[in-house]
Amino acid sequence: MAFISSGYNPDKPMENRITDIGPRKFSEFFPPVIAKNAGNWDYHEILEPGILVHVAKNGDKVFTVRCGAARLMSTSHIREICEIANKHCGGYLRFTTRNNVEFMVDNEASLKALVDDLKSRKFAGGSFKFPIGGTGASISNIVHTQGWIHCHTPATDASGPVKVVMDELFEEFTNMRLPAIVRVSLACCINMCGAVHCSDIGLVGIHRKPPMIDHENLANLCEIPLAVAACPTAAVKPVTVEVNGQKVKSVAINNDRCMYCGNCYTMCPALPLSDGPGDGIAIMVGGKISNRINVPSFSKVVVAFVPNEPPRWPTMAKIVKKIVEVYAADARKYERIGDWIHRIGWETFYEKTGLEFTHHCIDDFRDPAYYTWRQTTQFKFTSHLD
Amino acid sequence: MAKHPTPMLDELEKGPWPSFVSDIKQECDNRAKNPKGLDYQIPAECPDDLLGILELSYHEGETHWKHGGIVGVFGYGGGVIGRYCDQPEKFPGVAHFHTVRLAQPAAKYYTAEYLEAICDIWDLRGSGLTNMHGSTGDIVLLGTQTPQLEEIFFEMTHKLSTDLGGSGSNLRTPESCLGISRCEFACYDSQLMCYQLTQDYQDELHRPAFPYKFKFKFDACPNGCVASIARSDFSVIGTWKDDIKIDQEAVKAYVGGEFKPNGGAHAGRDWGKFDIEAEVVGLCPTACMTYESGKLSIDNKNCTRCMHCINTMPRALKIGDERGASILVGAKAPVLDGAQMGSLLIPFIAAEEPFDEVKEVIENIWEWWMEEGKNRERLGETMKRVGFQKLLEVTGTKAVPQHVSEPRHNPYIFFKEEEVPGGWTRDIADYRKRHMR
Q: Is the CB of A259 inside 8 Å of chain B's CB atoms?
């Protein structure tokens, strides 16, 4: 390999340097029908799952085909997306917040050719490259994080569990038969790079063991006061320990106080906490971000822990599918998962889904915990009280 | 022939959903074939090694990535995340595998030409693997080595007029919904505000000077498609002040079944005939709608603009004309002190270019937070620690009932000294004249 210079001169880093220019302006990339009608759209309709038409006040139409995608994407795949855009869409496309790809055309003939083309493309392994769906009362693509592919703090993988869940719920991506939209998100640790905490179904990687302490290297790798200050429950304190007959500065951890958040590890690499059998996934439900009908709300932990079962996480996938099935059968039109549970009550949710309620699901973290305990005589007699 | 056997990952090629494993394998093949004859600037087999190290994690249930090192481009404090694996001998292609965040155009519209140009640079100087996109919004280029960072930056800025995104304790790459570009619900030009503020705050984005990360997100209506209310320190959500516009003929068309309710969103199941009483009037959270003698009426004074009726009958009901935005602040994910939702700070603000009113709020908040916030404390946590009143004070905002879901539960009120007649300085001797010990 011979080094190929871009023109950058390391001896004169400021020469010809361009900085602080930000992103390209969005409007440079508008397809003509969007550029012409921005601000003048009248209404939209979903023609079939994954296919939208937006109609402008002047009668112009833009047809959008929404396709699922793995957000971990190769340049080979991006080039294929570009090829499709060049072939059918005048060279324009967009991505959605939920990692879908959207192809837009301005007439129905082009739409048919585009859809046929998209449906025909598969990966060598057999999966669809461009499944069409994710509109209306469906399960759209999953917002997620890096996982084992590229992150130092995950308690689970991201791309793998996402693939498994979307395989399991594929029919709900390509149909619009649920009572309302169901937003699924996955974060591979509680840092939550995605908005898992306000999702209809949130999957969160959690650790269950306090950090190990690499006494021999801690003082060299870490600023001890930062590691101590990083702990939200004051479980970390500075100590002097003996290693190989030498007194060294290190930390001690009060394991009973640790909630395995990993914040100390973020500040101090000598405090690793990931652990094969210790790590896994908590399942949360009933959150949302839309202001529609009911106000935005947080997701709640309904299953405290599911073990990591690579490569296909069968226990987790089964629970998610069960929740969706029970919701689909029982909820009223327009009810999000959280709305439905609010109406039927949490005890009924557990009864209908068959999920086990355990003490882990009772909040004991700080003041907000109190507001989640039941302060009324109103409850339902479910099998839990038999 | 695969460099590493991946029996576990191969299971993820099955099933209908697009397989990232199949895609990475396709990239491995393409790089091995190298049809364009590129002189790859980092190891050609890095996607193979990425699959190999991921397979190892699948066997062990643990990650093999170490803490990020301090790498980046000259003059910037963010935009590149250093990444090293802990098995460099086994997987030399990903021994050094840094992430580059690129600033995406607001709401992610692209031309094929532009994306292909990014791919050209990334094939030569990186792994050929990306995230489209990162959770915050950036185009994420996954995996390159330190000597390539300045070269990538130089080419992105010179050839593609594209800058890096944010990372670390700075303004993170802002993002918006697609707004007026393709949505009839948009109450302001969310893309334009996103773009303009991103440009105006480039220094804050590239040079970390904050206690911790700070995120802007812009939703053009209360439906909230970019989830700003849940995941941005500063969330701008479009709204309106005047009346929802009603087309009574179109209402009749929905009632008569000519128009599909909710834009056809429920078409996959037979929910029965559209029932405007049950599905619209009866679900209005403030019960401010009536449907009598074929006429829909809205008591707009009592409407809280939840969007349900408009979403359900988009051809009949339109957002009002006196448009602007609400600002909510302090949202964040759980780490550390629990998740927080954005709290309403400015109920209604003008959202027109050049967005000076919004910028004034932002700058007042920053000035206070940079002074008051502790290391690694998000704005929402500072607000919780110091109190919402302080935020009102520093932004010059008058307290109004809209700021609370209900008034406080306790009488432990921090009065200001000047609010109490005579102040707090009292004479004990004088008191003792009236009250013996």
A: no
Closest CA to A92 of A107, A78, A102: A102
What 8-state DSSP symbol labels residue A348?
H
DSSP tag of B106: G
Structure confidence at residue B336 as a pLDDT band (50, 70, 90): confident
Are the C-beta atoms of residues A77 and B26 closer than 8 Å to each other? yes
> What integer pLDDT is reported at residue A367 of this predicted model?
84
Question: Residue ranges of chain A with pLDDT lower than 50?
Answer: none
* d(C-alpha B359, C-alpha B357), whole Å: 5
Q: Which domains occur in chain B, in start order?
A: 7-160 (3.30.70.2500), 175-239+325-419 (3.30.413.10), 245-318 (3.30.70.20)
Q: How far apart are the first and last CA of chain B?
A: 95
- Using one digit for the tens of pLDDT, what is the confidence trace for B97-120? 999 999 999 999 999 999 999 999
Assess whether pLDDT exceeds 70 at residue B335.
yes
Residue B3 has pLDDT above 90, yes or no: yes
B329/B345 Cα distance (integer angstroms)? 7
Quick check: ipTM above 0.90? yes
Please report which confidence band the pLDDT of residue B391 belongs to, taking 50, 70 and 90 as the band edges.
Answer: very high
Between positions 146 and 175 of A, the ones with CB within 8 A of B are 146-154, 157, 159-160, 163-164, 166-167, 170, 173, 175
Contact between residue B251 and residue B274 where contact means Cβ atoms under 8 Å apart? no
Instruction: Give the Cα separation of A45 and B178 in Å (integer).
Output: 17
B112:A187 CB<8 A: no
* C-alpha to C-alpha distance for A121 and A138, rounded to whole angstroms: 22
Burial of B33 (0-12, 13-18, 19+ CB in 10 A): exposed
The answer, for A229 touching chain B at a CB cutoff of 8 Å, is yes
| Closest CA of chain A from B299, distance in Å | 16
| Identity of the residue in B27, B116, B122 whose CB atom sits nearest the CB atom of A82 | B116
Judging contacts by C-beta atoms under 8 Å, the chain A residues touching residue B93 are none
Rounded distance between C-alpha atoms, residue A98 and residue B343, angstroms: 24
Tokens in use for B244?
Answer: 């929802």
Check residue B1 and give its pLDDT.
66
d(CA B74, CA B383): 34
What does DSSP assign to residue A139? B
- Chain B contacts in chain A segment 335-364 (CB below 8 A): none
At A12, list the tokens.
């004169």
Res B409 pLDDT > 90:
yes
Please state the pTM of the whole predicted model: 0.97
Q: What is the pLDDT of residue B236?
A: 98
**CB atoms B132 and A28 under 8 Å:** no
Please indicate whether, in this complex, the C-beta atoms of B15 and A263 are within 8 angstroms of each other: no
Confidence bin at B70 (pLDDT 50/70/90): confident
